[in-house]
Amino acid sequence: MGASRELWPDEHTVFNILYDKFLFWSIIVGLFTFAWLLIAILRYREGVDPNVKLEEIKVGTFPKERHNFDLELAWFVGPTILVVWVTVLAFGSMNIVWGEVAKLQNDDDSFIVEANGLQWYWDFYYQDALTWEDMDTGHDVTWNITTGLTINPGEGAATAAVTYGASTANLDLANNTTLDVLFNELIFQHVDILDADGNIVHRWQHIPVEHKMSGDLIIPCDTNVLFNIYSMNPAREANFDATSTYQGVQHAFWLQEWGMKEDAVPGLEGGTWMYVQPNEAGTFPIRCAEYCGKEHSLMKGQVEVVAKEGMTCDADFGVYFEHEELRE
Ligand SMILES: [Cu+2]
Questions:
Q1: Cα 230 to middle of ligand 1, angstroms
Q2: Which of 27, 125, 148, 260 has the smallest C-beta neighbourhood within 10 Å, fewest atoms?
Q3: Contact in structure between 315 and 9 (CB atoms under 8 Å)
Q4: How far is Cα 175 from Cα 170, in angstroms, rounded to an integer?
Q5: Residue 268 CA, ligand 1 centroid: distance in Å
Q6: Which regions in the chain score pLDDT beneath 70?
Q7: What's the CA-to-centroid distance between 283 and ligand 1, angstroms?
Q8: What is the Cα–Cα distance from 160 to 200, expressed in whole angstroms?
């Protein structure tokens, strides 16, 4: 999707599929209705059909001489079937949105992020660790618990900026492509490979559990990503005052790319949940969809979708595909 349509959901999301189906049936019904109306207007004018005696039609009296039971039955049964069908489609989408969350909460493969709405920004706390790397750049970073950091610089790489916990190091890749620091899953680790002009040509990153990001967020593709959403979560706010009448305000965490949003409710124990299924790398907007005060319009960020280390993003990922007919 281009930038001008960045608020329009990805074409494979459940609501986009639902929108297309509703639009399809609306167009069919519209064409049929207006075509019939046009035919009726043209055919039943005075003088066109000698069988129609206009002077016999009286206001408030049903013209029983033209009564057609089959036709009447058809325009009751036909629309009823259509309304039932679109209702089933709509319920199917609700089942995907609400029914799947409970299953995914208990699925070890789910990737969980806590989103905490504050005035006026989002704090994110990772509940699962994420090690990711840019795809298809020709450069490669390996960092493990036995041999430490190894960089395959590929073509055009000049230096590497390395962060591990609170420490940093710079490698001149012409002389040195390794670092004798073992991978540690408990700390934040980051490698940028840069070209001679200082442009970043490759990124590698390890985000540990309980890592905090503010405003912007990074999530993996080809994974069910669950958000546990709070407003001013007492467990996260050191100066939270349980006796204060102010317990935060309503926000709504909104990811337009997947057509999903969910309320952040002050004081709601356990928070609320929603999930998305990213299947392509890219950067997409984060918005607040519930008016929450003076700087509501500035309560925004970006979510970057990346590939887990050693993987690529498969455009076919997602139950949106399995549920394309939106039945169940
Ligand atoms: Cu808001």
A1: 13
A2: 27
A3: no
A4: 12
A5: 17
A6: 1-7, 49-57, 62-66, 319-328
A7: 21
A8: 9
pLDDT at 2: 44
Q: CA 256 to CA 254: how far, in whole Å?
A: 6
Ligand 1 centroid, distance to 292 Cα (angstroms):
4
Rounded distance from Cα 110 to ligand 1 centre (Å): 27
Kindly give the distance from the C-alpha atom of residue 289 to the centroid of ligand 1, in angstroms, as a whole number.
6
| N-term to C-term CA, the chain | 29
CA of 94 to the centre of ligand 1 (A): 24
CA distances from 69 to 64, 73, 77, 78 (A): 11, 6, 12, 14
* Burial per residue of 223-262, b for 16 or more beta-carbon CB atoms within 10 angstroms, e otherwise: bbbbbbbbbbbeeeeeeeeeeeeeebbebbbbbbbbbbbb
Cα 287 to ligand 1 centre (Å): 8
CA of 288 to the centre of ligand 1 (A): 4
Q: Please state the pTM of the whole predicted model.
A: 0.83
Task: Provide the pLDDT for residue 56.
Answer: 64
118: CA distance to ligand 1 center in Å? 9
The residue type of 294 is K
Alpha-carbon span 180 to 143, nearest angstrom: 10
* 97-111 tens-digit pLDDT: 888 888 889 899 999
Q: C-alpha angle with apex 253: 299 to 14, nearest 5 degrees?
A: 135
b/e map 36-50, b = 16+ CB within 10 Å: eeeeeeeeeeeeeee
Report the alpha-carbon distance of residue 279 to residue 220 in Å, rounded.
9
Pair 119, 293: CB distance under 8 Å: yes
